[in-house]
């Protein structure tokens, strides 16, 4: 990994850790797959920290530019998947 995660100085340490955990879940979905329930939990926590659609889009775009991993595609696949399905791009 040769990039940094997008974080805000407004977040607490716990919030920063949870956002990083969400982006690690996105990486895992691209690289080897992740259980839908695990990804859903990480996404729900991310949305608690970043509730606005515009902020979410900006942060996720920043992550995609740095990493090459699409948050949007993973979340769309997660929303379409059954509860027991493993998410992998």
Can you walk through the features of this model?
By secondary structure, the protein is mainly alpha-helical. The protein has a two-stranded antiparallel ribbon. The chain is globular and about 35 Å long. The model has no long low-confidence stretch (mean pLDDT 95). InterPro entries: BH2638-like_sf (IPR023324), UPF0223 (IPR007920). Belongs to the UPF0223 family. It holds the Pfam family UPF0223.
Structure at a glance:
This protein is mainly α and 89 residues long. Helices cover 65% and strands 4% of the residues.
Order of helices and strands: HEHHHE
Number of structural units classed as domains: 1
Q: What's the CATH architecture name?
A: Orthogonal Bundle
Q: What's the CATH topology name? A: Annexin V, domain 1
- State the distance separating the first and last CA atoms: 18 Å
Please identify the structural class as seen in this structure: mainly alpha
- Number of E-state strands: 2
What fraction, in percent, of the residue positions are helical?
A: 55-70%
Give the neighbour order of strands across the main sheet: 1-2
- The outline comes out as globular
Q: What is the helix tally?
A: 4
Report strand %: under 5%
CATH H-level superfamily: BH2638-like
Low-pLDDT residue spans: none
Quickly name the level 1 CATH class: Mainly Alpha
Helix-strand layout with pairing:
Blueprint: H1 13-31, E1 34-35, H2 36-49, H3 53-67, H4 71-80, E2 86-87
Antiparallel strand pairs: 1-2
Helix pairs in contact: 1-2
């Amino acid at each position: 990994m040769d990039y940094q995660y997008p974080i805000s100085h407004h977040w607490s340490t716990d919030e920063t850790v949870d956002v990083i955990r969400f982006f690690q879940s996105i990486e895992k979905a691209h690289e080897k797959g992740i259980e839908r329930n695990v990804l859903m939990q990480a996404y729900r926590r991310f949305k608690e920290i970043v509730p606005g659609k515009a902020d979410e889009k900006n942060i996720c775009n920043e992550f995609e530019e740095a990493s090459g991993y699409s948050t949007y595609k993973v979340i769309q696949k997660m929303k379409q998947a059954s509860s027991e399905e493993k998410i992998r791009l």
